[in-house]
Each structure stands twice: as C-alpha cells, then as structure tokens.
Amino acid sequence: MKVNTAQFMALYAWYSWPNVVLCFFGGFLIDRVFGIRLGTIIFSIFVCVGQVIFALGALLNTFWLMNMGRFIFGIGGESLAVAQNTYAVSWFKGKELNLVFGLQLSMARIGSTVNMNIMGWIYSKVRDLLGYTGPSTLGLTLMIGGVTCLFSLTCALILAYLDKRAEKLLCKEQGKTGEVIKLTDVKDFSLSLWLIFVICVCYYAAVFPFIGLGKVFFIEKFKFSSQEASAINSIVYIISAPMSPVFGLLVDKLGKNIIWVLCAVITTLASHIMLAFTFWNPWIAMCLLGVAYSLLACALWPMVAFVVPEHQLGTAYGFMQSIQNLGLAIIAIAAGMILDTRGYLFLEVFFSACVCLSLIAVVMLYFVNHLTGGDLNWSAKKREKLQKVAATEAEEQERLRHQNEDDLAKLRPKADDFSLRNKYLSKLGAQLPDNYSSYLSTMVHRSLLK
Q: For the chain, what is the radius of gyration of the CA atoms?
C-alpha cells in the first residue's frame, strides 16, 4: 500500500487512543449500564466491526479507513479484557483466580504468537490463489483473520447464556468489576505509585513498539527470511505463555517485588543493547526479553495494591492503563518517525533510553520505599506475618467494641411497666404533662430499686 513506517505504526496508535479514556469507564459501563453479559457482547461486536472496516480499508486501498477500523477495534478491545476479568472474578474465587488469570494471559500470548506466524502464511496462499500482490490480497487476508473475531463474539454469546443459566440455577448475581473510579483520588496518589506509573510506561514503550517493528528489523540486520523473522519476533510471547503463571507463583512465594522488577528491567536493557550493538545470535537477546517481560508483569502490577487503599484501586489501575495506552500511542508514532529518518540503530538507542528511564524509576522506587518504610520489597513471609498480626489486632479491637457495647447495655435501666404505659399513651396521642412521663418514670424506677 506504499505506506511508510510512521503510518504503519500509527495503526498501533489508533488502537491505543480510545483506551486513554475508556480505561476509566470500561468497568463503569459493565457495572452500571450494560451488565457483564450485554457488555461483553457489545464490546465483541465493536471488535468484529473494527476488524471488518480495517480489512475493507486494505481491500479498497484506503488508509484512513484502516485507521478508523483500528480505532473502533480499540474501543472494544481493552473493554473486552475488563469484561473477561469480570467473568473470571464472578465464576472463580480465592486461590483459583491465580491460575485463571495466568491461563488468561497465556491464551492471549498464544493468540499473539499464532497471529505472528500464521498471517504471513495465509497472505502467501491468498497471493498464490489470486495470482498477484496488491491491496486485494491484503484485504482478503485480513478478512480471513477476522474469523477469530467472529469466534470471540460466539464465545461471548455462549458465556452470556451460561451465566444467565447459572444465575437461575445457582441464584448467583451478575459479575461486577467492583471498580470505583474517582478522578479526585489522583491528588492523593503517593510518590511510590507515580514511580510505578513511570516504570510501566517506559518499560512497555520499549517492548510493544519494538515487537511491532521487529520482523523487518531481523530481516534487514540479520538477513532472516520472512518466516524466520516472524518466528523470532514471536518468541517473547511464546515464552510469556508458560512462564507468566510460573513467575506469578514465584513472586507470590518469595515477595521482594522491587528486586524482581529491577532484574527484569536490567535484563531488558541488556537485550536491547545486544540487538543494537552486536551481531550475536538474536535468539539469545529475544529469549532474555521474553523472560524479562513475563517477570515484570508478574511483579509490577500487584505492587499497585500495596501502595493504594482498597477504595482507590479502581482509579489507580484505570489511571495506570490510561497513561500506558497514551505512552504506547505516542511512542509508536515516534518510533516510526525515527525509523524512517534515522534507521534501526537510532531506534534501538531510543528504546534503550526508554528502558534506562524505567531503570532510574525502579532505583528511585527502591529508596523511596526504604525511606518511607513501605512494604513493596518485603519478603512474602514477612508480609504474611504482619498481615496476620494486623488481622489479630483488628479482631481484638472488634471484640473489645462488642464487650463495651454489652457493658453499656447492662448499665442502662430496664424499661418498667410505668414507662411502657406512658410510651403507649403517647403513641395513641394522649396529652401528658411535660414533667409527668420523665419524672414519674424515674421515681417509679427508683422505688422499684428500693
């Protein structure tokens, strides 16, 4: 279609733009407007319509229509992920959730891997069938890829039926996100939370845009074939699929979240430096990047819950996803412009600089957490021990409160027949002297005590 790299990366940016705002309101729409079942179906329809418009844009050789398709696809994509998490929380509880969320992430990475390795093969088959290369070939390939979106919509319909049936049989309520979004909470965010936001934006800015441009990078620098380039470019997601649940369990057992994030960021920086300045086998660097990417996701995102009160979690996570999408949109466009004007070496230096900013933020977070006595770098055993102590203290305070209430109840004078009679007459509308009910009631009570 004769588009430059900046235009190509704009397709990623158009997906991110709507989610700068929708991350705040996706949970609200599911909880208060559509409900989980209808919301999932609506967001799935947005994904399908967006993919069809995107494919039509390629078929008609109209790039602005492709951008529109990506924008509509983005409206449904991230909100559909919120709906998916809501279903998981509704159907599974406690320790089951760790496995469920791990499997969700793994399936998403498997889908990305299949897309990277299969779409090129489908394009070649369509090209051989049509006998030429052009917009029609690309458009038909994207239409075929849209079948997965239809499958997603079908799953949403089946889930809605199963959830409705469970609501009747098990008397369960529709799942809700539980998110309470209050923009006024932003002013109360701690320095530690802002540093976590910086780590998130700078780190993912050096991963997702790189993967988007990685195939051509491996073809040009390392002279890989198209199939080999797709394979090595997808290794990050291939590693992430099985390793995410494993690293999640490891971080849960050991704690020390900041140390794990630091290791992930340093490993990612080493990977980008190897790709930029050496001709070593790129499989080494990409495998390291895949391990680091998996580790960071498991250690970074849970830290938000350690520094934010429970009633602000919805706002914190919404804000984190919002600025992540904003950062990815801007960095994607910047990466395309750098590649068009400066080449891959400068692009890798740019990605390395992003990771360096993330590294500085991690080091600052370590010292801020240490100076403020935070729990981000506690071991799992220490955190569990202190949580038990806090729970015991809360139970003791609750017991003392109930005991005080019981003691006060015992000290109160019991209602006698005289006072009950006066209350009854008052309810009937009988007029009593101002001092009659209270004074005589007290006198009678005292006489009874004698």
A: 30
